[in-house]
Design brief:
- The structure is a single chain.
- The protein is elongated, with a radius of gyration of 30 Å.
- Strands 2-9-5-12-11-10-6-8 form an eight-stranded mixed beta sheet, with no helix packed on it.
- It is built from two helices and 28 strands.
- By secondary structure, the protein is mainly beta.
- It starts with a strand and ends with a strand.
- The chain folds into three domains: 128 residues, Carboxypeptidase-like, regulatory domain (Immunoglobulin-like, Sandwich); 99 residues, Immunoglobulin-like, CATH 2.60.40; 106 residues, Immunoglobulin-like (Sandwich).
């Protein structure tokens, strides 16, 4: 455009004709020449942190910068014009352009921004989401689907008996109503650095004593990108719990307390039917006197349990040749009073 003055389009209902470059003229496009390239108009549509201008009353206007181009009103436009969150700029020659959008609040401070590129070969629409200045630039909308429950193949939260959902992204947990992630809007995450994140979702509620109940679960990844939201839908799987306790014995079969045996800590690992150990190489660690303990988020099936207790008195082990086994049923919450016992004997 050679710094040509651009006119702002004030409302979608009055679209002006695009500026057409006659085929046969040679214009630079992406570093080469394209005899068929067309000029056109650029239609910016923006959101701010995933929200419409009407939802962001503190935003006074949007500063549009396109290096090498002179824009009407020095590139400063209202966030919403005639019901449209965006602006149309006219008569670009064909080629690739960079841009920067900045949301300016009522005090004149830039609080959200976005950058990018667009290519003109005819009219082009550019959809942009502005994210907070100086912070992470990606986020996601989360949705979840509950597993079959109570005779329903795709139950609602109510049908599944789920009221609350807890979501962990990397090291940060959040709590939501179950219905939030099954509705049209989904659950908006905190701002994140672009890239791959670990995500864990627990769906359940509370028992009569106020303790959390986990009925379904998911662990996986969330991939986010800079400058625009990601919409991620997760199918949770049904889970149950297991309760266990350990008991040291002498070689003659006499029960010992942790103190009598000189034991201070216990490591537990669980092996599923495929041979996979659920808790890595180290297992879950507890104090010797913490029994009984509850193992959460177990998918239905049969598991083998391995326990090692250690301390000044040496090491005590459960059987490795004939390990104790237990079965988990979907949605079953085993109370501590029903914990099964794993006998431990001093390692030779």
């Amino acid at each position: 455009m050679n710094a040509k003055l651009l006119t702002a389009f004030l409302g979608l209902a009055v679209l002006a004709p695009a500026c057409v470059v006659t085929p046969g003229d040679c214009y630079e496009c992406d570093g080469g020449y394209d005899s068929s390239a067309l000029g056109g108009d650029v239609n910016f549509t923006w959101t701010i942190a995933g929200r419409f201008c009407a939802q962001m009353p503190d935003i006074h206007g949007i500063q549009v910068t396109i290096p090498g181009e002179t824009l009407a009103n020095d590139g400063y436009y209202a966030c919403n014009t005639a019901g449209y969150d965006g602006i149309e700029l006219h008569d670009f020659r064909p080629g690739t352009y960079s841009f920067k959008l900045e949301a300016v609040n009522q005090l004149g401070d830039v609080t959200y921004a976005a950058t990018g590129n667009f290519r003109v070969n005819g009219d082009v629409r550019v959809s942009v989401d502005l994210t907070p200045v100086g912070g992470p630039s990606s986020y996601a909308y989360l949705y979840w689907t509950l597993p079959a429950a109570n005779g329903y193949a795709r139950p609602s939260c109510y049908q599944a008996g789920v009221t609350d959902v807890w979501v962990r992204i990397d090291q940060t947990w959040g709590s939501f109503s179950c219905a939030d992630g099954t509705g049209e809007e989904g659950v908006l995450t905190q701002y994140l650095q672009p890239g791959t994140h670990e995500i864990e979702i627990v769906a359940g509620g509370y028992d009569s004593s106020g303790n959390e109940l986990a009925l379904s679960h998911y662990v996986g990844t969330l991939q986010t990108v800079s400058g625009k939201p990601v919409f991620a839908d997760y199918s949770l799987w049904a889970v149950g719990t297991a309760a266990l306790k350990w008991q040291p014995y002498t070689s003659g079969g006499t029960k010992l307390s942790c103190d009598d045996a000189g034991l201070t800590k216990v490591a537990i690992n669980v092996q599923d039917a495929s041979g996979k150990f659920l808790y890595g190489d180290a297992g879950l660690e507890f104090g010797c006197k913490e029994a009984p303990v509850t193992l959460n988020y177990l998918r239905p099936g049969t598991y083998s349990i391995y326990v090692k207790a250690s301390g000044p008195g040496g090491s005590y082990l459960s059987s490795t040749s004939n390990p104790k086994r237990f079965t988990v049923s979907a949605y079953e919450q085993v109370p501590a009073s029903a914990a099964f016992e794993v006998p431990l004997y001093k390692a030779q």
